Amino acid sequence: MRGPALACLSLLVVSCRSDPNQPSQDPVPASGGTVSVEGMGGLGGLGGGAAQPPHLIDRPTAYEWDLPQAFPTPWEPADNPTTEEKVELGRHLFYDTRLSSTGETSCASCHRQELAFTDGRARALGSTGELHPRSSMSLANVGYAATLTWAHPFLYELERQVLVPLFGDDPIEHGLGEAADLEEALLEEPAYERLFERAFPDAKQLGTLHQAALALGAFQRTLISGTSPYDAWLNGDVDAISPAARRGYALFHSEKLECFHCHSGFNFTDHVHFADKAFFETPFHNTGLYNIDGQGAYPEPNTGTMSVTLDPRDMGQFKAPTLRNIAVTAPYMHDGSIATLSEVLDHYAAGGRTLEGDGAGNGSLNPLKDPLLVGFTLSDDERADVVAFLESLTDERFLTNPAHANPWK
Ligand code: HEC
Ligand code: HEC
Fold first, then answer.
1. Bridge-partner residues for 316, per DSSP?
2. Distance from Cα 300 to the centre of ligand 2, integer Å
3. Ligand 2 pocket test target in 110, 115, 259 with most atoms within 8 Å of CB
4. What integer pLDDT is reported at residue 156 of this predicted model?
5. What is the maximal distance between C-alpha atoms in the chain?
6. H helix or E strand, kind and range, residue 56
7. Which of 215, 310, 315, 401 has the least C-beta neighbours within 10 A?
8. What is the DSSP string of 145-171?
């Protein structure tokens, strides 16, 4: 079995049940870190779709979303309708360093608002100094993600994902041992009493891990970015973006570059779900970043969805991330291995990464690579145009919105 340690981490939250379509249960604290992977193998070849988890509703709730023009209504779990009060509690928890073994790490350590909730590092650094194998992800529009993290085909709910950074031990992120650690930390702060009361007025017991997970989920669902210069242009302000950015927009959507197939729609990714969407789809793609053995291998432990499904056909399959705010989220890719947007374009132009002599192999010859990635030639001017377009997706209002900022200051 390849990458068993990663499989265990990835499955920490959802593998406790062998059938991913079981109804939602209360999130359970991860105790030891290792969980059986029984029943999860042989689900590979997941390039296409998956059945929608029935415990997630995709009808709009009563919450009044402040949505950008042309944005659909987010989906929400049946047991966690969004409320202002939960969002406010979740914001406090997101920025609270007391929810870590060292008292120094909060979600915001690796998800910084000014960097569209990434950390500026190639690979994330946990509370105890352990390096994460992958790069921190932007949380812009994360409530629209069909599945969560770079390559987990069964992790649907923010409320469950939250347990991975809090309790995961491979790698250590917040480094909490069990639910009691978190619940004790919550008792230390008097402000939480009122915040929990308001968020969960009917609860018999307040300050539980379950409630914290619901609140963190609710807060993250409100991290919506759709007020960039590009959006203003799209909505009729013809001068909101430069002529170069407009040419870049056309190139991005051309048959030559093909970017729009995977980075499609309002969130520039094909990996979205929302209220009233007709089909539930979870596409993953191999973009030919590696080919270490000539058969398509990616370096352990970053083997894509294969690390969860254990199916060799899933080698190198990753989620196409949103490109919103992409100019502030360098370095790029699941392992932060590309430094700049210009170099990202080199990678696509070559039809895969073709670094010589670094052991990465010739990604352009990766037999598992997506057939859309055949490569193209791009002049220096065209490259600058595409970069200008990508820069027009930077949403200053989102990056500085006080509603998403640290409430403890
Ligand atoms: C040590 C750094 C670190 C900390 C602390 C951290 N994260 Fe993350 N986060 C990451 C990394 C790295 C990934 C990508 C994980 C992967 O693909 O396996 C990620 C992924 C995510 C995702 C998935 C995003 C997507 O688009 O699929 C969410 C949601 C998330 N984190 C929320 C949180 C929350 C909430 C907290 C606090 C409870 C938190 N994170 C704490 C580093 C961190
Ligand atoms: C076949 C689907 C597909 C096509 C076509 C495609 N991408 Fe991607 N893109 C992805 C996937 C999947 C990733 C993540 C790959 C990884 O980390 O292993 C990605 C990553 C990226 C990233 C880095 C995102 C981040 O947060 O680190 C950028 C930037 C990007 N693509 C831009 C483009 C551009 C520009 C084009 C057109 C030239 C393009 N993509 C074409 C699927 C695609």
1. none
2. 20
3. 259
4. 92
5. 65
6. strand 56-57
7. 401
8. BSS-TTT-TT---HHHHTHHHHH-BTT
* Inter-residue contact 366 to 291 (CB < 8 Å): yes
Say how many Å lie between the CA of residue 136 and the centre of ligand 1: 6
Question: Quick one: CA torsion of 358, 360, 362, 367, rounded to 10 degrees?
Answer: 170
Q: What's the chain's length in residues?
A: 409
Within 10 angstroms of residue 106's Cβ, the number of other Cβ atoms is 21
Bridge partners of residue 169, in order along the sequence: 172
Query: Splitting the chain (409 residues) into consecutive groups of 10 residues, what average pLDDT does each group show?
Result: 33 33 34 27 37 60 88 91 97 96 95 98 93 97 96 94 93 93 92 96 95 97 98 96 98 97 97 90 96 95 96 97 98 97 96 79 95 96 98 98 96
Nearest of 289, 395, 388 to residue 341 by alpha carbon: 388
DSSP, res 293: T
Look at ligand 2, atom 11, and give the residue with the nearest C-alpha: 320
Phi and psi, residue 62, nearest 5° = -75, -10
- Please report which residue ranges of 235-362 form alpha helices under DSSP H: 243-252, 259-262, 306-309, 341-349
Contacts for 205 with CB less than 8 Å, ≥ 6 apart = none
Predicted local confidence at residue 17, as pLDDT: 29
Residue identifier of the C-alpha nearest atom 32 of ligand 1: 162
pTM for the whole structure: 0.90
| Cα 346 to ligand 2 centre (Å) | 12
| Six token digits for residue 137 | 């992800």
Given a contact cutoff of 8 angstroms between Cβ atoms, the answer to whether 197 and 60 are in contact is no
| Residue 236 CB burial class (10 angstroms; 0-12, 13-18, ≥19) | exposed
Instruction: Tell me if the bond preceding 301 is cis, omega within 30° of 0.
Output: yes
The pairing of beta strand 56-57 with beta strand 76-77: antiparallel
Tell me, using a 6 A CB cutoff, whether residue 149 lines ligand 1: yes
Give the H/E segment covering residue 76.
strand 76-77
What does the pLDDT read at residue 53? 62
Q: Are 361 and 292 in contact (CB under 8 A)?
A: yes
Distance 174 CA to ligand 1 centre (A): 11
Q: Is the shortest distance between the CB of 321 and ligand 2 below 6 Å?
A: yes
Whose Cα sits closest to atom 31 in ligand 2?
320
* Angstrom distance (rounded) from CA 150 to CA 135: 9
